[in-house]
Amino acid sequence: MYKDENGYPVLLSKFITDNNFLTSPTLDITTVLDHGVNFVAQNAYFRIPFIDVTNNGVIIVGSDIRHDTASDYTMTDTGIIRSLDGGSTWGSDQMLFLNNGIAAKSRKHNPSILIDKNTNRVFIFVFVIDSYTDEANTGLVLDPPIIWDFVYKYSDDDGATWSDEISLKALLTDLTANYYLSGSSTKGITLSDGTLIMPIYDGRQSNDLSEPGTDFQFRSGFIYSTDHGATWIKSTMVLAPTNECSVIDLQDGRLLLVCREYGNNKRIFITEDMGVSWTPYIGDKYLAGYVCQISTHRFISGSKSRSLICFPTDLEARSNGKIFITNYFRRFREFLLVESGIYNGYTCFAQNGDKLYMVLEKDGDILFYDLNDYVQYLI
């Protein structure tokens, strides 16, 4: 319950407005990956940020390390940086995935993070691609044929050391349609029963309209593990042109997939059978903003929870980034303006106890937001 200066209850929307959360919030922001300071050997431009917090309170932030340019089609590695003291100080750069260096556009990019909240094992997934052309101009038709993979590494010591790469390419059993598989540039979740879920999307060259569902370039879904990451299972993919999705576990146990669409609408789908089937959710296409990734997080405090969603709300450019709050993704309330100007658009949330953090990409840098001053207004 929110109260005015006299102690009388007020609506949350009025409380937020009166306290200028949406017009002039006071935000605690630190540049944690600076393109003039970090990974200077790559002449880095940082994009596609991720963040999560281990059970021991270690904050792990990472992103694409794009060589020389912001383009999606340039040599790209993936690296991380860690904080052991809640974001007050940050350690040294850690190169995690170095591109193969065998093609003009060798990349290990689109990173995603998942922490098993029961074992504290940290997983980071990347999409591997070695190509010679700009896929943006040719759909997914690449000449010569590309080398691609979907791989991950894991850490059992809060991100200090990492395993070798492990491939998940075998999750695509039929490669005749020129599929590929990628993480969704976000973070995964651990369900209450211990199941690990990592959002993904696939892509294909085929536009064979005679086969239902194959006329889409990208499709969203997830992979999941019931044995702490020893094996992974791929869900059925949503039959809609979407990608860069995130997943939310509702309070009743159902799973929502919140997806980027190649239009201004945000797509939301629901499954009640661990991704065997999908249906559009009641909040589908309710939210609108410029084409971009969408980050979500279910903030849990004791027996209460509130879901967060963040994306650039301007319809003409990636600007005016806002956090919305919701319970069941049916109604959304504007909560916090996090960036009023032009920015690259991608964000990611993380929680440690009752502390809330976020990362945001802007002008080649990754910014760390300590949102703890606003937690009291969430629940």
Short description:
The protein is an all-beta fold. 2% of the residues lie in helices and 46% in strands.
Order of helices and strands: EEHEEEEEEEEEEEEEEEEEEEEEEEEE
Number of strands: 27
Mean pLDDT equals: 87
- Choose one word for the global shape: globular
Amount of beta strand: over 45%
Main sheet makeup: 5 strands, antiparallel
| Rg result | 20 Å
Distance between the termini: 9 Å
Helix content: under 10%
Please identify the structural class as seen in this structure. Answer: mainly beta
Number of helices: 1
Q: Uncertain regions: pLDDT < 50 for 5+ in a row?
A: 1-12, 136-143, 208-214
Question: Can you walk through the features of this model?
Answer:
With 379 residues, the chain is mainly β. The chain is built from one helix and 27 strands. Strands 12, 13, 14, 15 and 16 form a five-stranded antiparallel sheet that branches. The longest helix has 7 residues. The N terminus is likely disordered.
